Amino acid sequence: MVDKTNKTGAPPGTLVYFGDKQTDRVKISLIEFNETEFIEKEFYDLSECLDHVDPKMVRWINVDGIHNVEFIEAVGKRFNIHPLTLEDIVNTNQRAKFEDYDNYVVAIMKMLYYDSELQSEQLTVVLFDGMVISFQETHGGDAFDLIRNRIRLGKGRIRRMGADYLAYALIDAVVDCYFGILEKIGDRIEILEEDLVDEPTKETMRQLHNMKREMIFLRKSVWPMRELINNMERSETDLIKPTTDIYLRDVHDHTIRVIDTVETYRDLLSGMMDIYLSSVSNKMNEVMKVLTIITTIFVPVTFVAGVYGMNFEVMPEIHSKWGHEWGYTLAWVIMLVMMISMIVYFRKKKWL
Question: How far is 240 from 129, CA to CA, in rounded Å?
Fold first, then answer.
């Protein structure tokens, strides 16, 4: 295993795991089935798993854990998987894509799930003749429970179809999980909209910012799926039968719907952030307006008080009869009249 810091300049096909550090053992799940039979077993050893493989049945080998690069290399040698594909399997930052090789096709994508926040793990689906091998990054979120139940119970057409239909079903399950995530995000957006209308706070802004980051990550994960499905549909490989093409077109339609919803939510969040900033700005403007009006009202009053507060002996108004007896009262009357007149004027202009 090559150190991450030395990955730059390493030969193509060098396996370097870029995900979170893990110590769990790699678990292998083997499911074999045909229209009448079904077998399911779990292993921790590759050789033991391969001893139980029946080439006469459709085989699904699911590998939980890609942190053990020696194990991934062993799988690659056993099934003649190209080193570049193995490199992509352990590179958890790999963009979703589809590639066609001589003896297999491979689809790499992000499996997403929502647990208080958006989380993801890399999924690789390798389709051989009569067999599918899926590589999951962790033992965590898994979109395949419904597929396993359909195989166990013999529901639907999955037991009657081949490995290519199984690969389609796995990809379709991943895309269906995107809809569930979008539904939860939509609920959070509705709650944030109510907070914006009622009483936006700094916490509202923080949540908006976090959701925008989640939508950027979701968009980055979902957008390449359209290209992936397109390439699968156009592939000339014999591993994908014409009967499966119609189901791939259905997944493609679902992917387009997910992308449209993601773009809609991104626009909503951007609009909500603008609303928040406008709301904060309007509140600040209201405060500044009130302070400005108060200041404007008291400026002439301060002027009057300042003029007659000057300590000069020769001030004609003060030494006159009116100034001597009524000066204090007249000063108050003048100031009150000025204040009331300005308030009436502001109200007439609808500034208050």
Answer: 9
Of 49-53, 64-68, 246-250, where does the model show the most confidence? 246-250
Q: What are phi and psi of 141, to 5 degrees?
A: -60, 135
Helix (H) or strand (E) holding 89: helix 83-90
221: Cβ contacts below 8 Å, ≥ 6 apart: 96, 109, 110, 112, 120
Which residues belong to CATH 3.30.460.20 in the chain?
4-278
> Using CA atoms, how far apart are residues 352 and 344, in angstroms rounded to an integer?
9
**207 Cβ contact list (under 8 Å, min separation 6):** 188, 192
For residues 336, 340, 342, 345, the Cα torsion angle rounded to the nearest 10 degrees is -160
Tell me which fold the domain 4-278 belongs to: Beta Polymerase; domain 2 (3.30.460)
CA atoms within 13 A on the CB side of 45: 4
Task: Give the C-alpha distances (Å, rounded to integers) separating 183 from 122, 176, 180, 255, 298.
Answer: 22, 11, 5, 15, 56
What is this structure's pTM? 0.77
Pairwise pLDDT comparison (313 vs 38), residue with the higher score: 38
Q: Looking at the domain covering 288-348, what would its CATH class be?
A: mainly alpha
How big is the CA angle at 232 (ends 148 and 56), to the nearest 5 degrees?
45
Closest alpha carbon to 159 in 250, 57, 248: 57
